[in-house]
Design goal:
CATH architecture of the largest domain in chain B: 3-Layer(aba) Sandwich
Number of domains of chain A: 2
Helix content of chain B: 25-40%
CATH topology of the largest domain in chain B: Rossmann fold
Strand order of the largest sheet of chain A: 9-11-8-12-10-13-14
Helix content of chain A: 25-40%
Shape of chain B: globular
Radius of gyration of chain B: 21 Å
Number of strands of chain A: 14
Distance between the termini of chain A: 32 Å
Largest sheet of chain B: 5 strands, parallel
CATH topology of the largest domain in chain A: Phosphoribosyl-aminoimidazole Synthetase, Chain A, domain 2
CATH superfamily of the largest domain in chain B: HypD, alpha/beta domain 1
Number of helices of chain A: 10
Oligomer: heterodimer
CATH architecture of the largest domain in chain A: Alpha-Beta Complex
Shape of chain A: globular
Strand order of the largest sheet of chain B: 2-1-7-8-9
Order of helices and strands of chain A: HHHEEEEHEHEEEHHEHEHEHEEE
Chain lengths: 380, 375
């Protein structure tokens, strides 16, 4: 990966247009607004942020991190673990996956792990979750029991408790079977400041395992293609893996070497890396042959016309860390069941800023841009 | 992955690229006709490997890119009719018509569904006998046989609520039109792969015979394309112009008889069909024969059928003919981007502009081009 990528006048012109803040002009919501790609970014930045702007929301991280304590003289606080000031992470996510049961998990497991992971990516220890259920009239209690039991198991594995909740039932057709929202809080006990804007030139990019397992599993589970594979969703709680990484960094006296953690869910690794490259104003260069993709997922993507880099994951993380601790962190991650295939897939460079580039296995270079619209399969 | 990775080996690629370089220093322009090839070229960064004297021109072989605005409007019109389930391949969902796209129509309440095969659309029709189910037939001889087979199936099973909005096109008249175009300067063709599995290689004989240009039918893996470029350059260096078949593992000389029979049974050529950016090309479109008119959505729904001119800023025509490079278009990457496409070349990942925008902005080719003054 020694090739120097130099920005050209053409590149600068396009890049200027690409960064231009577009006014949100769409008149209605299309599915593209929910796919995790650029349309969704425009919706969030152009609309939600315009109306609800505040310094915490403005950061547009996967979770908000703020301090809470007793020092303001009120009665608020965090009970047993309240210190003069605790750093708290807070996040929310809704789950609408179709089908609700799929190889490797179901909507309930996803709802717990997803929120646990969003908390963990801030370096927080996830503690308490809420769960809101929107149920369709006629939904089977047997299925609901199945979902609840997998939520119980997932919460137990992650060491969190669902401590509050809500239930709504709507008329048949108003939702599809069951939608779940979970919110969560956790405390950040290590002196880390993880953010998509903290990547530094020279950093290494670590990926905790194979890409594309969840998204391809769901595509296949929809049954439209009559494909059969052994592929399973990778949905998993990553808080223990993150704790291992924090411990390793701590024992090296290098908390400051951890710069950014993200779980590449919707929009896949490509979208996550683009978010980091843009908000840190750096170039992220990855090497295709270093990116692990399971054979089954590769095959399914090949048939579906998808690119594993853009396919959703539910049990993987991307870490941007100082080069001097990268190998050490990877070695530690590999001892964890959810990091056993961890590896370094690239590095952070200065130019061209805001861009993710990939050295292809074939010997060329290409841009890995943010997903535009839904990743629709190609026809020929 | 078995049988795939073999065609993506970087070490073989650089050897092949060296061999191409050793053949000739003469500047050569080679067009890949098929959008699938364009996608591969950009996805793997093949232009980075080619010697500087070899220039790839990205041709008109992306069916999504050449469907004219008026036909997209017609498709949206049908999708918006009451009681209609409109089915389409995924690519066509985002293609902008003169005002909206199918994706917008879907958001506004039209029942637009993505399918992987027209047979899936037929299944939907059988499941919903009280609805009219329309399939958007789109593509070259690659996808047309599956539309034909589905119509035959629907005919056999007397499925009265199924029809096809046929926009199928044929490659040979388009190739001829390109070769006849006065502003075209090409030295050889990377011939279509998937299309040729159906039509065979015999029908390309006119290219070397009448126009003196080599054409090599080519597979879709990156090594296929490099090998094909090698074969084309070798022909030129040796003073030959022939039809060669690099994709012999799939394509034969006479094509797929069953598929061709089905095509002939169901479809007949239209006098003219409009191609976006290229204009009307005689006998380049297919329509349903009278025998199957019950399955012709154009007749069933009396579509408006308006001709709508391409946006003025759009230079898709020049780009499709290889006269202009994507980045030489004034709106490339600024007003026209994959999320707000003005021209059709920006819509599908197989369009030259979208492929270049998505994958190629940093390639050596761009550096070369920007060495020249920018307009």
């Amino acid at each position: 990966m020694s090739k120097v990528l130099s920005p050209t006048p053409l590149f600068e012109r396009v890049e200027k247009a690409r960064r231009r803040k577009r006014r949100f002009r769409d008149t209605q919501i299309t599915l593209a607004h929910g796919s995790g790609g650029r349309a969704m970014h425009e919706l969030i930045e152009g609309l939600f942020l315009e109306y609800l702007r505040n310094p915490l929301l403005e950061k547009l991280e996967d979770q908000a991190v703020f301090e809470i304590g007793l020092t303001h003289g009120g009665t608020t606080g965090l009970g047993n673990f309240a210190q003069p000031k605790a750093r708290v992470a807070f996040t929310t996510d809704s789950y609408v996956v179709d089908p609700i049961f799929f190889p490797g998990g179901d909507i309930g497991k996803l709802a717990i792990n997803g929120t646990v992971n969003d908390l963990a990516m801030s370096g927080a220890r996830p503690l308490y979750l809420s769960a809101g259920f929107i149920l369709e009239e006629g939904f089977s209690i047997e299925d609901l029991k199945r979902i609840l039991s997998s939520m119980r198991d997932a919460a137990a594995e992650a060491g969190v408790a669902v401590v509050t909740g809500d239930t709504k039932v709507v008329q048949k057709g108003s939702v599809d079977k069951i939608f779940i929202n979970t919110s969560g809080v956790g405390v950040i006990e290590s002196p880390v400041h993880l953010s998509a804007s903290c990547a530094q030139v020279g950093d290494k990019v670590i990926l905790s395992g194979t890409l594309g397992d969840h998204g391809t599993t769901i595509m296949i589970a929809r049954g439209e293609l009559e494909l059969e594979t052994d592929i399973e969703s990778d949905t998993a709680p990553l808080n223990a893996l993150v704790q291992d990484m924090l411990d390793e960094a701590g024992s090296a006296g290098a908390f400051g070497s951890l710069h950014c953690l993200r779980d590449p869910t919707r929009g896949g690794a490509a979208t996550t890396l683009n978010e980091i490259a843009l908000s840190s104003e750096v170039c992220i260069e990855i090497d295709e042959i270093l990116v692990p993709v399971r054979e089954e997922a590769k095959g399914a993507c090949e048939i579906l016309g998808l690119d594993p880099l853009y396919v959703a994951n539910e049990g993987k993380l991307i870490a941007i860390v100082s080069a001097d601790v990268a190998e050490r962190l990877v070695a530690r991650m590999r001892q964890n069941v959810y990091g056993s295939e961890a590896c370094i897939i690239g590095m952070v460079k200065e130019q061209p800023a805001g861009i993710v580039a990939m050295q292809t296995g074939f010997g060329g270079t290409r841009i890995v841009d943010m997903l535009v619209g839904e990743q629709l399969p190609r026809i020929c | 992955m078995k049988f795939i990775d073999e065609y993506r080996q970087g070490d073989l690629a650089s050897k092949l690229a060296d061999q191409i370089e050793r053949l000739t220093p003469q500047p050569l322009k080679v067009m890949e006709v098929c959008g699938g090839h364009t996608h591969t070229i950009f996805k793997y960064g093949i232009e980075d490997l080619l010697p500087r004297n070899i220039e790839m021109i990205h041709g008109p072989g992306c069916p999504v890119c050449v469907i004219p605005l008026g036909r997209v409007d017609d498709a949206i019109f049908i999708a918006q009719q009451p009681n209609v389930i409109f089915t389409t391949f995924g690519d066509a969902m985002r293609v902008p018509g003169s005002k909206t796209s199918l994706l917008d129509a879907k958001a506004s309440g039209a029942d637009v569904r993505m399918v992987y095969s027209p047979l899936d659309a037929l299944k939907i029709a059988k499941k919903n006998p009280d609805k009219q189910v329309v399939f958007l037939g789109l593509g070259f001889e690659t996808t047309a046989p599956s539309s034909a087979m589905t119509i035959l199936q629907a005919h056999k099973e007397r499925v009265g609520n199924f029809s096809v909005f046929c926009n199928h096109i044929t490659i040979i008249p388009a190739l001829k039109a390109m070769l006849d175009s006065p502003d075209l300067r090409l030295d050889g063709f990377v011939g279509p792969g998937h299309v040729s599995t159906v039509i065979g290689t015999r029908c390309y004989d006119f290219v070397p015979r009448d126009y003196g240009k080599p054409i090599v039918v080519t597979g879709f893996e990156p090594l296929d394309i490099l090998q094909s470029v090698f074969m084309i350059v070798k022909q030129i260096v040796e003073g030959r112009a022939e039809v060669e078949n690099q994709y012999a593992r799939v394509v034969n000389r006479d094509g797929n008889k069953r598929a061709l029979d089905a095509l002939f049974e169901v479809f007949e050529p239209r006098d003219y069909f409009e191609w976006r950016g290229l204009g009307s090309i005689a006998h380049s479109g297919m329509r349903l024969r009278t025998k199957y008119s019950a399955f012709d959505a154009e007749l069933k729904f009396s579509v408006p059928g308006l001709r709508i001119a391409d946006p003025k800023a759009c230079q898709c025509g020049e780009i499709l003919k290889g006269v202009k490079k994507p980045w030489e278009c004034k709106v490339f990457g600024t007003a026209c981007t994959p999320e707000t496409p003005i021209g059709s070349c920006m819509v599908s990942s197989e369009g030259a502009c979208a492929a270049y925008y998505n994958f190629g902005r940093l390639s050596k080719v761009a550096e070369r081009s920007s060495a020249a003054p920018m307009v």
